[in-house]
Amino acid sequence: MTDVYAEAASKPQPAFWYGLPHGYLQLDLDPPFEQVVALINQVLSLPDELRDRAEEVVRFYTGVVGLLNAQQVQGCAIGLHPDEAGGVVSSVLTVSTVPASGVNAKLVLASMAGTAADNPDEGMRPLELPCGTGFIAEKKRRTVAPGRPPEGADAPLEGVVWQGTVAVTGSGMPDIVVVQLVTAAVELADDYRNVLLGVAHTLSFKDPSPREAPGGDGGTGRGSAATNAIRNDFG
């Protein structure tokens, strides 16, 4: 793991923290208005031969951000890692909250695990984490491939992805926290499972950063000693 921690919070609280693996870049799901305006102005200033493509990328980005926010995703990071062939493999890490709707979140998790146990394709099993008890599930599924379909194609191209999911809740936590990792590099499922488990083991409902002694203004500082001890689980 890197020594960067991402903080996310459901509305209302509580907050939670998790470690970001090496090679993952956090996606801003709530960009400042000024930043959006600056991006649009940059696109408009591009030469005509580049503007259309840039506008397409911006529309894709805004669409993804809107979709993630609608699904209560609290954090999203894009992973890029070199492969043995000299190329790059990509993955998407998301952390979201699922309200238990007034029901005990631990009972909801137990019910979900019991239901999935009847479906071996889900690959679900219990998981003990420092922050609480949950489960991990993984599967391979077909999905629409990103990008434009080839000219003359009747339907968008499809591809197979590996999807790993960890769901957990803590003591007094009203929501279920879901950590999910998706990649098209299905042959690297074992490695990405380790990444997912590495992130899940850093999940905390208490700020893991050591706090300095309060100063004259009563404030506290954040350090990185605890985060430096976290191992990079990508391999």
What does this 3D model show about the protein?
The relative contact order is 0.18. With 235 residues, the chain is an alpha+beta fold. The protein is built from five helices and nine strands. The C terminus is likely disordered. Strand 6 and strand 7 form a beta hairpin.
Which terms summarize this structure?
single chain, 235 residues, alpha+beta, 7-stranded antiparallel beta sheet, two-stranded antiparallel sheet, disordered C terminus
Give a quick summary of the entry.
This protein is an alpha+beta fold.
- Overall spatial form: globular
Radius of gyration using CA atoms only:
20 Å
What is the percentage of strand-forming residues? 25-35%
> Helical region count?
5
Give the beta-strand count. 9
Strand order of the largest sheet: 3-4-5-9-8-7-6
Major sheet: size, sense and barrel closure?
A: 7 strands, antiparallel
**Helix-strand sequence:** EEEHHEEHEEEEHH
Note poorly predicted spans. Answer: 9-14, 215-235
Helix content: 25-40%
Distance between the termini: 10 Å
- The average pLDDT value, as a whole number, equals 74
- Structural class category: alpha+beta
Topology:
Elements: E1 5-9, E2 15-19, E3 24-26, H1 33-44, H2 48-70, E4 73-82, E5 88-99, H3 105-116, E6 125-129, E7 132-144, E8 158-168, E9 175-183, H4 189-202, H5 225-228
Antiparallel strand pairs: 1-2, 3-4, 4-5, 5-9, 6-7, 7-8, 8-9
Helix pairs in contact: 1-2
